[in-house]
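Honest question from a wet-lab person: if I give you the sequences of every part of a complex, can you actually get the arrangement of the whole thing, not just the pieces? Trying it with mine:
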Amino acid sequence: MANFDIQLTVNGRQVSQSVSPHLRLLDFLREELHWTGSKEGCGAGECGSCSVFVDGVLMKSCLMPVAKAQDTIIETIEGLEEQGKLNVLQQAFQKTGASQCGYCIPGMMMAATAALRANPHAGREEIKERLGGNICRCTGYQKIFEATELARDVMNGTLPDDLLKQENDEGPFIGSNSFRIDTSSKVTGSLKYAGDMVMPQMLHMQVLRSPYPHAEILEINTSAAEAMAGVEAVVTCNDVPGIDGFGVFTDDQPVLARGKVRYVGEAIAAVAAEDLVTAKEALKKIKVRYQQLPVITKPEDAIKTGATVIHEDVPDNIVMHIPIRKGNVDKVMAESDHVIEDTYYTQPVEHAYLEPEAGLAYLDADGTLVIQSPSQNITHHRHKLAKILDLPINRVRMIMSAVGGGFGGKEDMHYQGIMALAVLKCRRPIRYVFTREESIIASAKRHPFIIKYQLGLSRDGHIQASRIHMLSDAGAYNCSSEGVMRKAAILAAGPYAIENLIVDAIGVYTNNTPSGAMRTFGAMQSQFATECHLDLCAEKLKMDPVELRLMNFLKEGDETHTRQKLGSVSMLEVFNSALELADWEAGISNSRGSTRSDLGNPGNRPPCTLGAREFPQETVSAGQSA
Amino acid sequence: MNAPLRKSVRQKRGRGVAACWYGIARTATIDRAGAWAELDDGGTAKIITGVTEIGEGILTVLAQIAADELGIKPQDVTIGDNDTARSPEAAHAGATRQTYMIGNAVALACREARKRLIKELAQEWEISEDDIVCSNGMISTLDKTRCITISEAVELCKNRGVVPVGSGSFTANHTGLDPQNGSGSPWQAYVYGAQVAEVDVDTETGEVQVLGVWAAHDVGRAVNPQGVEGQIEGGVVMAVGQTLMEDYKQVDGYPSTMNLAKYILPTSLDVPEVSSVIIEDPDPLSPLGVKGIGEPSMIPTAPAIINAIYDAVGVRIHSLPATPEKVLAALREKRDSADSVEKSAKSI
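Yes, you can. This is the full assembly:
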């Protein structure tokens, strides 16, 4: 398609340029004009990170063809500052600590600006509704609401603007709400994430991924792709000079599939080309012949005798089994007044950091390989890469770029190895930016668990014995599974004193998307079962679930389930503080009926309802006005 | 035409509680982190460490720690972070370890740099090193008879031929687990948490809304309380997502929730109001007493919600997420079994 000429105004500057019609407004702003403040989080209008103003209207720039922006006035996050200073809303985000990773913040700032432009007196419920098209994965939104309200009140003159200042400028600073040192770069859009970076001579990388959950690779033919104009390099596992394999605990995953694919989305080959379109076209010309293999998708099937083996060196498909044993469970369980059993299930979960994986790789002047990426563990990645590339460790330099959310999902070295192979082959800088779809299928998930729980209790509610059996789907590769099983097992029985205990955490290979590190590393799954099961036990014993916990908590000097003697234990103080904060009313669950008075107290939001909503206007008492 | 249902008939409220515990830093293996510090010209400081800011605010935490250790302000601290060719190893962002591991390493590095500065000053002033203190950009004798800015002190130190630099390495002595019975000391610092959740359950649609969460967490010592709250609020909301809506689905190994239209995340309209209280039970085994909050903040939320659903409507959901379909099915099952109990009672 032929280019066309576009005229528009961006952040007060007139732009006149010839552009390719396939670009979206977001691509034009970021790639052609290098206004990289607006971020791409999903490419489908779901997350709002790319929100900008088009003629004053809040729009998702990933959904807008650039041609539609002809003769418009565009405002992005970079246009919000006033005379080089943070505006009131930006200062309010700083004051309330409303930005964490910062990746959603440009879009969020635009949406909050739009909310206050539409109604300078918007109340919290209206603000929430107006921010409903913008996803934040870090903050839980609360401080974003607070920031928007604070800005509203300062702009309306109902609160003084010195509330935007830092509370403590004298020290000591430990214990005070010092402003985040990175906020201003996040609320102005000036912070560069890996996908925002460019270098002269930079190539673009794309990766061919497995369409099958389990298949033997009979042949990879890259010759047609390599012959294309604009293609600088095609890499496969044959380009690995050293010892192939990465993982957090064992190196069971090849940089690019070697002889076999074990899950849908596994990387097979990569292309580095002059532009993204050429790289994508070249992927289509790589011919792979597969022989499909039987697929295992359930962990209970993976451990059956005769099950298909997923990794040849692990014939039983068991990635890791962590046992904990203490006391005499069989005897004490049999003697317990109550034995209560149930089974709990948790699902796989996507990290959904707003910043999809991205990286920029190049050779330093002295030939050192450099990779800038939002890696959560560059120390570990350097070790792995040096081994894979057969380079001295100081010839591999990993630089952490700003991380747009991680939650454990950026601990795995899923793509840095591929980038390294391509850079060493064509000796030019290479950038690789995942799409949201690619990020979701290629990266590890939270481990799903099946947890069989048996608890023996005395008549008055003391825990006598505990038997916890956990089977978890580790997916196609180990990633962090070994550590996740360990943490799940150690913490499974919860902060309770238990003399007799059997815990097993077993992670197994399947042909599902690999499971890996995710916030709590197995501990939320195992303790989910414990805390649900304790309430079930309270129900069976006709007890207050609070009482049941109070009589079983670990105390100072107690031994843990792994027989570690504990020092100070704050459990009781913490628990009582939560109850006090919530105005908890004692009683047996689901039995108190209309006599109770603990529901609907302050600290709740109003429930959402269907249908048109009328928002209460924010009214401020006269005394507050300046 | 029927009158619309009264809200109270259809909407049921309930509350649930759950507790949690968590270990700080790497599990069942020794953990370590390193940092370098330099008191720089103009009363500023450079801290170099392989820290990983993933949004939790660790750079700010380290700046606050360095500021207090060196007697300057957080904004005067420049942090050179994660570059394997330029900064000492501090390892990964995970295991709720960075404030504990790297915070303490930075404190130790700053103490060494400060000691080097004070030693030169003590010789210059011909007094004991113990009689010199730094705070608020000033360095003075205990009796305040001599007082200069830190900027002047650094200049004085350098004029004596010494650059006030320091390094720190912090170790957490964890032991591996016995392969048979799992015994061992996987962490030296533990934290505890508890949360109450209040839910509204629509008995006609099965929809659950979490309206309020009250959270208490021990963090050892809160370096930046607002940042701790941010971690609690973010953790709670991530857990609300897992408890009610998020589900990565695969059919025969083929992912079917490949984008954010299919994989549903909590938005501003789904989140509860979160109230937090921070408990400080300082860690006795480390210089600062800090522990951590990033991961444990999300552990009690899911069971507190599930227990609240039971309190509201008397059904227990055993598998996450507690979708409207599952809640409705459980309500139907409860109703059916109540009916059959009633029928069998009548037939007697």
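Two things worth pointing out. Residues 98-125 of chain B form the longest helix (28 residues). Residues 31-172 of chain B form a domain with the Aldehyde Oxidoreductase; domain 4 fold (CATH 3.30.365.10).
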